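Appendix B. Extra example for self-study. Work through it before the problem class; the solution is given directly after the inputs so you can check yourself.
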Amino acid sequence: MTKPDSLQSASPAPADDVIVDVRDVHYAVDGRAIFSDLNIKVRRGRITAVMGPSGTGKTTLLRLITGQILADKGQVVVLGRDIEQAKSSEIYALRKRMGMLFQNGALLTDMSVFENVAFPVREHTDLPEPLIRRLVLTKLQSVGLRGAAELMPTELSGGMARRVALARAIVMDPEILIYDEPFVGLDPISMGVILRLIKQMNTALGITSVVVSHDVKELATIADDSYLLSGGKVVASGSPKELAASDKEVVHQFMSGEADGPVAFHYPAPDYFDQLLMGEEP
Amino acid sequence: MSNGREENFIVGGIRRMGASLLFLFKLLGQCVPALGRPSLIIAQIYNAGGRSLIIIMLCGLFVGMVLGLQGFQLLQRFGSEEALGSAAALGLLKELGPVVTALLFAGRAGTALTSEIGLMRATDQLTAMEIMSVDPLRYVAAPRFLGGVIALPLLAAIFSLVGLFGAQLIGVQLMHVDRGAFWSQLQGAVGLGDIWEGLVKSVVFGITCSLIAVHEGYNAAPTAAGVGLATTRTVVASSVMTLLLDYVLTAFFL
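Solution. Structure tokens for the complete assembly:
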């Protein structure tokens, strides 16, 4: 078994410091292995980046962590609770301590920006209306969209929608914040804003962050720990700088964005000429 | 080869019905807590019922008018035009009201429900709710199901009333059937049992059509094609089930 190119994150962390622990996880869909022997540790108060080429199962990993799917083998321990062993009600209780930013924002389209942010508060607390109003406006202010409180999701740009979704994700003061491809489709200004907000949530609120993305350069500026996934397992881990300096071929290809390498440019196919000439007279 | 296909079709159909039943049990479990949020249910009664009102009234009027014309032609042969009121009322209350309303409901409200929930699935809104520890079955599916179940019998009653008005319009105003005979025959022929039969049918159709619409939307593949397919399935399955159950219930009440 090839060991991952463990650079820095292998530095032992105290057990109670690990807030998400993915241990020897195997997961397959229709017999096709998505993960085999996957090991990832997310430490409290840090920003952990999970990177990898498209189709390596990054979003699937988030679904495992949030208990939407269960691993075929291995353990996923979140906030000290084994997801596999947890009852549905316990998973729901666990999720109250997590926030998640979806790739497209996933705002509820029949509610205004204000109501979207207020939604989890109304569902889980009996706070009086003036307090909910103050809480929502505070969170919207922190993402710079207090002025957009009355807009509907259809009136927002992609970057604004993601910021509203971020305000909604933090409104219950979660311990872990999970970002699924937060930079996809954003212009440079919006991308900078989201980057700054992720860092700010981490430093100002002490929220542990897990960022799944393939935007290497952007992540390198904020991540404390990084994992690179390929072929269903971690092929390298460490700080972004250490990953950038790695001489391992697959890491080098991903970090420098080369079109061909261990991750092949061509999808497996029969011989090119044979296929072109197939059915023609000799 | 065709045997294999038929087998797949049958097995697929049974699997789908089983999945719908399991979904119904889960949904019913969430209907009780959903009743504690009447504002959500009222909004869905308006969506499924209020927004279908015009089409239901319009179709009810035309069906009643056709019933008036055809009924008059038929009854005239036997010299009993005065029975038009009772024939129209029984036809509307026991059969046409619940059945045609259910078919229209499947086409108008059922498809809207399926595509709305399917799009919520495709745009991760349902997953976002799950992550926020809000069960989408309770918050999204149950109020829509209950809204449909309550709206359909109300719509069927309105359909029958408007249809009766249409039949009276043709019979009394156009064909000059005696007004007193029309209404007195109607009053004499229609009993509580007939109204009960129509009510039971419309409630059963309401449960069936709403369940199919919500189930198809909730389990739609999260793609444009998936939502389209789910919407088509809603109309086809609701229509077939409505007519099948209509036969079963009619046989039961005879």
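Self-check: Chain B touches chain A through 14 residues (CB under 8 Å). If your reasoning did not lead you there, revisit section 3.
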